[in-house]
Write a structure and sequence with these properties.
The mean pLDDT is about 95. Strands 1-2 form a two-stranded antiparallel sheet. It has 19 helices and 2 strands. It has about 400 residues and is an all-alpha fold. The protein is globular, with a radius of gyration of 21 Å. A hairpin with a 2-residue loop joins strand 1 and strand 2.
């Protein structure tokens, strides 16, 4: 038992070291921070004072960020600190609950630190770390790797899903099949009431948004998903988003494919249902044309795939485990640069491809935690200098 704890602690400490070395913030994180700063300073939860527009897509992340910002009073360290704290919680849950087999956990750890999608967005200041945590706990409770009493299980699953949707609405696709199965297995009013109770936080926020902003959905929903862009163009860009991931982060897509294959070919009903939610979400990513940020939308699905693969890896003989480990390293090193290393100046050459950018490579020089020091106040970007100069000119 002592050896097991030592190995698990080593995995945890090494992950913390890697995340600290690769920690960064993207410019989109400051969209939310501007609203938070206005709110904390009495101007309302707005982008511009006096104009009620919801520019952020992650209300739960925004609320947690507000609490930390009140304590720290620093935008950079509030954004990065929240990302790091929740990513640490993700790894603690993963290491101590995802599997009882130490070699399987080591296999999972290797996958996580070689995935650009997961590791890049374990920081960044966006909501991904919280999406990771809620999805991981939901999957482990649903697969009964985290024990919950039968009379509370439906409510716990619904609450986790409701909070995940409050954190980012489109992730409902990941959880809907599992919640449907939970209800169909019981089919009682009590079960339906528990599912509804779990979504009360989301319902309360939606009511607030409707009254305060005039709309339930954030402004980006109307700006990005309701355009005159032909559907064929969006589908083509969705395909480009997948191809970009395959070329520059092949491990992530291969693991997602393996997770789906294992779930549907050899998994029991609950694993298949999680796989169904993953398929719904992957289809949604393709349908909307992907994203401008390379890998961002794949990170949660990747983590769920790793969770699905671990029980099957436990059954492998040691020779097979060594072979799989070598394949993981090979695929991880096929990326232009390893995910677990800070970006170099060479990474900027491939930072933007077909409208899809490697955000960490682009912004790390201005916001990477390793660059912080006495003479470097982060973020250190030309836009920051321009903003300060404009502020000094007057109101």
């Amino acid at each position: 038992m002592t050896e097991r704890k030592a190995l698990l602690s080593l995995l945890l400490l090494s992950f913390i070291t890697i995340v600290l070395r690769t920690a960064w913030l993207g410019d989109d994180a400051y969209i939310t921070m501007r609203s938070v700063d206005n709110w904390v300073n009495g101007y309302g939860l707005t982008w511009n004072p006096g104009e009620r527009v919801q520019t952020f897509t992650h209300p739960l992340w925004m609320l947690l960020l507000t609490g930390l910002y009140i304590l720290l009073g620093n935008a950079y360290f509030s954004l990065l600190g929240l990302s790091l704290l929740i990513s640490l919680a993700v790894m603690v849950v993963f290491i101590f609950r995802a599997s009882r087999d130490v070699t399987a956990l080591a296999f999972g750890w290797l996958l996580l630190v070689f995935s650009h999608a997961f590791l890049d967005y374990s920081t960044s200041g966006l909501e991904n770390p919280l999406s990771h945590l809620l999805a991981l706990v939901f999957a482990l409770v649903f697969l009964e790797r985290i024990p919950v009493s039968a009379n509370r299980r439906t409510f716990v699953l619904s609450l986790l899903a409701g909070l995940a949707v409050l954190n980012r609405m489109d992730t409902l696709l990941l959880y809907a099949p599992a919640l449907a199965l939970v209800f169909l297995q019981d089919r009682t009013r009590r079960s339906l009431a528990q599912i509804a109770a779990g979504f009360v936080p989301f319902a309360l926020w939606s009511l607030f948004a409707l009254i305060y902003y005039g709309f339930v959905f954030p402004n980006t929903y109307y700006a990005k998903l309701n355009t005159a862009i032909p559907k064929t163009t969006l589908l083509h860009q969705g395909l480009v988003y997948y191809l970009n991931e395959l070329l520059f982060d092949p491990l992530t897509l291969v693991v997602i494919a393996c997770g789906l294959l294992v779930a549907f070919a050899w998994g029991e009903i609950r694993q298949r249902v999680i796989g169904m939610g993953m398929l719904f979400y992957l289809g949604y990513i393709f349908y909307i044309g992907g994203d401008l940020m390379s890998g961002r939308f794949f990170s949660v699905v990747f983590l769920l795939s790793v969770t699905l693969l671990l029980p099957h890896f436990e059954k492998f003989e040691w020779q097979s485990k060594v072979l799989v480990g070598l394949v993981i390293v090979f695929l991880g090193l096929m990326a232009p640069s390893p995910a677990f290393l800070p970006p170099s100046s060479l990474d900027l050459e491939t930072a933007n491809r077909s409208g899809i950018s490697d955000e960490r490579a682009y912004y790390y020089g201005a916001s990477g935690l390793l660059r912080w020091g006495r003479y470097h106040k982060l973020p250190e970007h030309e836009w920051v200098s321009e903003g300060i100069a404009l502020r000094e000119q007057g109101p």
